[in-house]
Amino acid sequence: MLVEATAPGKMILYGEHSVVYRGPAVVLAIDRRANVYAKKRTDKKIFIDADNLGFSGYFEDNVYHAVRGNAWRGRNLAALNVSAKKTMEYLGVEGGVNLKVRSMIPIAVGLGSSAAICVATVSAVEKLHEGGLKKEEISNVAFEGETIIHGKPSGVDNNVSTFGGVMSYERDVGFKHHKLTKEIPFIIGNTRKKRSTKRMVENVAALKERNPAIMDNFIDAMGNVAREGLDALLKIDLSRMGDLMDLNHGLLSGIGVSTMKLEILCHTARKNGALGAKLTGAGGGGCMIALSEEVYMSDIERAIRRRKSDAYRVSLTDQGVKSRWIEDDEIADS
Ligand code: MEV
To answer: Which of 149, 151, 252, 317 has its CA 20 to 30 A from that of 283?
Structure first.
């Protein structure tokens, strides 16, 4: 028997970067998930099999030994090791574990893949030891893994991946869960350019250091957009949501986290009928999102693909992290 844990990716609808300082940000769990399978080992190695990401290997005393393929972005690997170890430490148990990672969330493009993998790892390892952790505890332990990758993350990614649904987060207020009365599908446009969230956050911090007063205005403006955006989202006021996405994108361009390709994709989406479009996540490449009425959705997807980018529709999901015991042969692609 082994444990399967699954956790969703996310998209930030409003408030990335400003949430690192104050917020709020409005974050939505999406129906693309990361699965982690865990099995106990008799030694203390943390073995990670992520063949569909191009590598497998193990950590012994926090040193990585490659078995197959190139090491997948060093910090991401270390984050899995830390997530597994911190979980055992938290539970007061010792041991090794085989982790198999299968993710449908594209990596390093702003859709929360690393948080989802950390959350699923914590959940799988705690279930393996029948730890009975609450969701909040899973999210907090996963945050320690996330910190390895992102430096000083705001915590929105691991929280929304753990709890699912729609969340807002503001520094002095904390997390709030929200319920939507209607499904809203979005289009994601992926520039296919991977980038580091840590580096993008550092770039913004440096710009803020050089221009503190102006940057404060930008951060406040993004916070106001996110506050109004949340109101529009909860009222399912699509045209106001679209305006606020465009405004948020303009502010993100202003603080230097957009790219030529992201600009092109946002303009392409708007020109083809989108009510609004913006980059999502840390920027510097990665993904943009577009909101549209159903009638224009296929046109927008096709137009984005013509720009040598991926385009897909995503639905939101209320399903946060889940884990269960399964038989060894139940892993789809093992
Ligand atoms: C997170 O996906 C994007 C940023 O807001 C950083 C963070 O919240 O930790 C840029």
So the answer is: 317
Task: Specify whether the CB–CB gap between 22 and 208 falls below 8 A.
Answer: no
pTM of the shown model? 0.94
pLDDT tens column, 49-94: 987 777 788 999 988 888 887 665 566 778 899 999 999 999 999 9
Find the 281 Cα to ligand 1 centroid distance in Å. Answer: 6
On average, the pLDDT of the chain sits at: 94
Domains and CATH numbers, the chain: 2-178+323-330 (3.30.230.10), 186-314 (3.30.70.890)
Q: Ligand 1, atom 2: nearest CA belongs to which residue?
A: 281
The set of residues, in sequence order, having a beta carbon less than 8 Å from that of 98 and lying 6+ positions away, is: 37, 38, 39, 40, 41, 47, 49
Strand partners, 312: 188
**Burial of residue 210 (number of CB atoms within 10 Å: 0-12, 13-18, 19+):** exposed
Residue 156, ligand 1, Cβ within 6 A: yes
Say yes or no: CB of residue 157 within 6 Å of ligand 1: yes
Q: For Cα atoms 181, 186, 192, give the angle at the middle one, nearest 5 degrees.
A: 150
Query: Residue 18 CA: which ligand 1 atom is closest?
Result: 5
